[in-house]
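Fold it.
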Amino acid sequence: MNSIRIVMAALLAACLVTGAQAAEKAAPAPAVKGTVQAEVTFDDPLGRSTPQGTVLGFLKAMQREDYERAVDFLDTRQTGKRAEQLARELKYILDQGLLNIKTTLSSKPEGNLQDNLPDNRELVGTVKTKRGEYKILLERVQKENNPPVWLFSSETLKLVPQIYEDIDIPWIERHLPAVLTENLLAGQPLYRWLIPLLVIPLALLVGWLFTKVLIALVRKPIRNRFGEAVMIKLRGIRNPLMLLFASGAVYTISLGSASLLARLFWTFLASTLAVVGLTWLLLYLIDAGAEIIERRRPEAANAVIRLSATLMKALAVIVGLVVIFYYFAGINVTAVVAGLGIGGIAVAFAAQKSIENFFGGLFLVWDKPIRLGDFCRAGEHQGTVEHIGIRSTQIRTLARTLVSIPNGQLSAISVENFAMRDRFLFRHTLNLRYETTADQLRYLLTQIRELLYQHPRVDSATARVRFVAFGQSSIDVEIFAYVLETAQEPFLAVQEDLLLRIMDLVEAGGSGFAFPSQTLYMAKDGGLDAEKSRTAAETVGRWRDQGELPFPDHRPVRVSQLEGTLEYPPKGSILRNEDKG
């Protein structure tokens, strides 16, 4: 939260400096080529190149009681005392009677081209009296060979004496002591200097009261919906909310200011407070939203969520600064956006890999092809996922080394996640000796198939035992089935049990395993067990005679009778004893 306060202090300082410079200089923004009526302009020494500069320049000259300079802002042929009197009356009208004022006068040499007025006219505001409503206009005038400047129009100045006579003394001056209205300080009555001392504390008080009421109304619904942690995080929005309500109070109070220059100042202050308060509020809401998402997403997403929140907060501050610069300093936003676009392209090229890794991390978090603790294979690397970061993902390999793979590369390659499988594949090839007879082989095929059908941890629907090839030194039998386990250790236990039982069946069938090597054994071969071979052959012969030879496969009825009938764990197993206990 301290970082948020520092950012907001910097933003407020930038806004105030911008406003001060805008009010002090009142200088026009240079015309941009390609815009409507683009032309080569100049900076008038008095600031009359823009409508904004003309109004502010006139008000400041009158505040200094420099009447001779103030007359330079009027399009009038009167001179001397009559011109000075006209300037005083116009100042009085602007201060007392200008109710509907345009607070954002154009700072461009061509003025506002979208106000439905002739291109050389600009509306300052309207004055309402008992006789009617009058418009205060500026006009762009070019005298002799001098560059064009904005002046209070001659049409408006002709009506000034009449408007002056119709305007009443401000109600506030009628009810204040003479010492506060007649005594001047820097050209302003004393009471106008006292207004800020009352306005600012009053605005803050109003903002504090409204904030207390709003927080009291939303506290319980937010706590019930998101929990106490989020409510604690949202307590920080009190300050920005108070600033927003205070800006509304300042703006309301500014409408009653007796001076146009004061109204412009208070309006600018209210607008600045509103932009700063809204930006500040957005920063807190982004933080609160990030915390809510972190609680609902896996821990691996935290780094990406925090970075995304930081980028959004930076964007909110930039937008706030652009709004301040555009509305209060007259900076050309189009040029700024174009500059940011060019700079963004340059940054994008320079940080291409970083951006690629960042978005790769986003895809890993949201699509979840792998998660923390998953055992996976990524390219040539195989191991357990230990960390998913902004730039890279770390995998602990079987050799206990730590491999860091950039997220951009990880999102572009095939990733095999072993932790996501729903069952294990049991697939082996038996290499039986060539001395095995056909009936012996039939016996073994039958017994192994029945073994797979009987085993409770084997999916019998996928079980397959087939004589597949005559190898170089063996008769090859393929065993294929899925084991109903999802973890590695239980699968290894089931696989071990199946392999041991298959060894027993091979021995019981009178066969044996072939040696795939080319070693020449100079020993007397005992051959196969004649008794067991005869028993196997007799069994197969009985099946044949009775029409029950299970080839090419067992009957479905027989398969259903055999399913799950084998005892597992086997008799004498420690697991079997523990289950009984």
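The longest strand covers residues 458-470.
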